[in-house]
């Protein structure tokens, strides 16, 4: 083939590839999106009751997928999103089933003290990860029950139990859901971590998850399993970290895992997949989690290491790193508004 023929062939191929590319881009997005939807359904075992429900969920999935694609195209973002198990939920649906912290921070509880025992601790480590100290149980999944408050309180109690006794014990969230019903706690309809600590104190302790396993639904209190004699861990009290003070929260977390409440009602939080979360969020705290460490990312961004209760397929194996030392005194997503920790 002479050089002229080779040139025309190259021009033809370039033109064909350009045409093919434009054809692909002009195709309706529903075709490739439907494929992504089917793959996602297979991955998460999603089955719907009828074609109408499937079509409705597809539209929600499509909107979330398009949002994720657009967000992840921003190379300057410090975190990424993904089509996780919540990709066919609206934010309102998601919040009503997964968040359950009731903001009752102005209602006093009898066993809370104004003391902050870590207030004089000035030399705190640059980084802390209580997982490496064996003080954090594996990530759990609250399912479709708004009892995040129970998981947050239990995570903090598991942590201080390990620190004080040397034993890491997976404790029972279901006991709190079933039995802590006389105060501000409403099982799967929400509650507070301080209220959970109050129950553990007055009950003489909390039993193990193995003895009183999690069911993810409101149940009747099993008084035999919840009896003091069955308690595997106990606390004497709890303290609130001074509000709106990230350094005070850092002082506390340097010494033990801490329960916190955050505003988790956003698409970015729902679909978070990794990196340091710096996204837009408010301070209408609605979700209980546990801070189990802090540190600094390779690019210099400070973060809180937060254990969630949405299973290991969400976030970084069930954890999220949230930006620390922000300009708002309340912290990112209100993380510094109402932290508390149990004492032994």
From TrEMBL:
Residues 124-343 form the Peptidase C1A papain C-terminal domain. Residues 37-94 form the Cathepsin propeptide inhibitor domain. One of its GO terms (biological process) is proteolysis. Keywords: Disulfide bond, Hydrolase, Protease, Signal, Thiol protease. Residues 1-26 form the signal peptide. It comes from the Eukaryota. Gene3D superfamilies: Cysteine proteinases. PROSITE patterns: THIOL_PROTEASE_ASN, THIOL_PROTEASE_CYS, THIOL_PROTEASE_HIS. GO terms for molecular function: cysteine-type peptidase activity. Pfam families: Inhibitor_I29 (PF08246), Peptidase_C1 (PF00112). Belongs to the peptidase C1 family. This is Vignain. The gene is CYSEP.
């Amino acid at each position: 083939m002479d050089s002229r023929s080779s040139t025309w062939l190259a021009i033809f191929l370039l033109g064909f590839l350009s045409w093919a590319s434009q054809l692909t881009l002009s195709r309706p997005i529903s075709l490739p999106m439907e494929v992504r939807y089917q793959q996602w359904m297979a991955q998460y075992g999603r089955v719907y009751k009828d074609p109408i429900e499937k079509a409705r969920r597809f539209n929600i999935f499509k909107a979330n997928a398009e949002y994720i694609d657009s967000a992840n195209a921003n190379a300057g973002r410090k975190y990424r999103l993904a089509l996780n198990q919540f990709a066919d939920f609206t934010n309102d649906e998601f919040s009503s089933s997964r968040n359950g912290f009731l903001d009752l921070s102005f209602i006093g509880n009898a066993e809370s003290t104004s003391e902050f025992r870590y207030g004089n601790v000035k030399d705190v480590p640059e980084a802390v990860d209580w997982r490496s100290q064996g003080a954090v149980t594996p990530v759990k999944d609250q399912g479709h029950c708004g009892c995040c408050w129970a998981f947050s309180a239990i995570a903090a109690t598991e942590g201080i139990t390990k620190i004080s006794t040397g034993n890491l014990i997976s404790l029972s969230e279901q006991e709190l859901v079933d039995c802590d019903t006389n105060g501000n706690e409403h099982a799967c309809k929400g509650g507070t971590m301080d209220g959970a600590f109050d129950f553990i104190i007055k009950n003489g302790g909390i039993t193990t998850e193995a003895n009183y396993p999690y069911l993810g639904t409101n149940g009747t209190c099993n008084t035999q399993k919840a009896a003091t004699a069955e308690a595997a861990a106990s606390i004497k009290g709890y303290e609130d970290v001074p509000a709106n003070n990230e350094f005070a929260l850092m002082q506390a977390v340097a010494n033990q895992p801490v329960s916190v409440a955050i505003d988790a009602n956003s698409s970015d939080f729902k679909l978070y997949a990794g990196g340091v979360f710096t996204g837009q969020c408010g301070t209408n705290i609605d979700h209980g989690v546990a801070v189990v460490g802090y540190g600094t990312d390779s690019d210099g961004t400070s973060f809180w290491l937060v254990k969630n209760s949405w299973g290991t397929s969400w976030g970084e194996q069930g954890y999220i790193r949230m930006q620390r030392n922000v300009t708002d005194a309340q912290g990112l997503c209100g993380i510094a508004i109402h932290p508390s920790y149990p004492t032994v």
